[in-house]
């Protein structure tokens, strides 16, 4: 068999986010028998792709191929990988490797997503020991450590499953871990790609009431159609924080702006409620929090990072069983530049999925 040729949309500098990625070939990480090569059929477009293309979080090691919501066919499977065989339909999310050592406090306790020793992102990471760089899914092929390559259950469409691998799991994990279920009222702030999954999965987990919270009233009908029981438009609904004060047990926030009305979001929590931030602003800054908002209601503020391979598999099973249907817009892979520009302009309803 001829060697696989890896080609994809290369971001070469900060301007690539303006629709200036260039198609070209790239050298994947050095092959190891722990790896799987995937022929990509679909890749979702995540808000994180934009942050990394423009070096918003930290300097990106250009050239960089973004995309970490990858579905495709395993075309080469390392001999140490036992749960995948050639020809299987598989997926890769935002993480490509961790140390997986028995003495790692994170990997040994099923928290690979928090591994501090050898965490490798699906794109934009440099592997240790001259193994090369990680390249993502706006491409023909991807190479990832088998531990992070997951079989996709039959009942799920590939284009629907792709954005679950990052967008879906990033909200599913904190919902699940913070008790989303019968008897709970849950708010999802920022109904974009992640946020729309927040509404879908909070419903699938059978929360009593799910409230979508975004800026504009124009999303109201769509968010209610998604399954939300209520919608709050923070730019337009008068006195929204006062009127809905102390109504939610749990909030998951996907907004990544330093200017978000954080203190008002927190006022929506009931006594002892929990607020989990997953949106990741450029530079990492959040607005100030008033200490008395925390103290008076005894609330907790936390964060969450994607999810583990085990959690992703569990989410995919629930999605298949409960027929969770994301709202996606498919675009041909050749239109990746236009898609990134539209995503940046907030036009996605609610997730673009690139298709080869
Ligand atoms: P997205 O589709 O653009 O959704 C973000 C939503 O936030 C928008 O739809 C927007 O909805 C809302 N928003 C509210 N205030 C905003 C403001 N001032 N500026 C911009 N948007 C505002 O993006 P996404 O793919 O869901 O990603 C959201 C964030 O999560 C990104 O920062 C991404 O990097 C991060 N992320 C984190 C993790 C993790 O592990 N923690 C994983 C994946 C992604 P309205 O216009 O309706 O207000
Ligand atoms: Zn993502």
Automatic annotation (TrEMBL):
Protein keywords: Metal-binding, NADP, Oxidoreductase, Phosphoprotein, Zinc
BP-aspect Gene Ontology terms: alcohol metabolic process
Keyword Oxidoreductase: yes
Pfam family, one: ADH_N
Names of the cofactor(s): Zn(2+)
Stored SUPFAM superfamilies: GroES-like, NAD(P)-binding Rossmann-fold domains
PROSITE patterns on file: ADH_ZINC
EC id: 1.1.1.2
Domain Enoyl reductase (ER): 19-354
Subunit structure comment from the entry: Homodimer.
Similarity-based family: Belongs to the zinc-containing alcohol dehydrogenase family.
Protein name: alcohol dehydrogenase (NADP(+))
């Amino acid at each position: 068999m001829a060697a696989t040729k890896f080609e994809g949309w290369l971001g070469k500098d900060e301007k690539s986010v303006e629709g200036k990625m260039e198609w070209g070939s790239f050298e994947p990480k050095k092959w190891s028998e722990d790896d799987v090569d995937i022929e990509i059929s679909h890749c979702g477009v995540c808000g994180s792709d934009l942050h990394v293309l423009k070096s918003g979080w930290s300097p990106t090691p250009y050239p960089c191929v973004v995309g970490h919501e990858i579905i495709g066919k395993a075309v080469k499977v390392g001999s140490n990988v036992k749960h995948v065989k050639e020809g299987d339909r598989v997926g890769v999310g935002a993480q490509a490797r961790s140390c997986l050592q028995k003495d790692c406090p994170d990997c040994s306790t099923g928290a690979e997503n928090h591994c501090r020793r050898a965490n490798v992102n699906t794109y934009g990471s440099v592997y240790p020991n001259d193994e090369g760089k990680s390249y993502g899914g706006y491409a023909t092929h991807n190479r990832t450590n088998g531990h992070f390559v997951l079989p996709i259950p039959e009942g799920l469409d590939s284009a629907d499953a792709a954005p679950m691998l990052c967008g879906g799991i990033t909200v599913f994990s904190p919902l699940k871990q913070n008790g989303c279920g019968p008897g709970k009222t849950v708010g999802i702030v920022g109904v974009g790609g992640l946020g729309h999954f927040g509404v879908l999965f909070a419903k699938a987990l059978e929360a009593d009431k799910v409230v979508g919270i975004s800026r504009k009233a124009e999303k109201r009908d769509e968010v209610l159609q998604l399954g939300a029981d209520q919608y709050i438009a923070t730019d337009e609904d008068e006195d929204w924080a006062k009127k809905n004060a102390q109504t939610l047990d749990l909030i998951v926030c996907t907004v990544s702006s330093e200017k978000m009305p954080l203190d008002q979001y927190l006022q929506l929590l009931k006594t002892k409620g929990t607020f989990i931030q997953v949106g990741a602003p450029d530079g990492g800054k959040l607005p100030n929090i008033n200490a008395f908002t925390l103290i008076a209601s005894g609330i907790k503020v936390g964060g969450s990072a994607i999810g583990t391979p085990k959690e992703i598999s569990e989410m995919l099973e629930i999605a298949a069983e409960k027929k969770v249907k994301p709202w996606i817009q498919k675009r041909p892979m050749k239109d990746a530049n236009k898609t990134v520009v539209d995503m940046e302009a907030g036009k996605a309803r609610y997730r673009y999925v690139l298709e080869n």
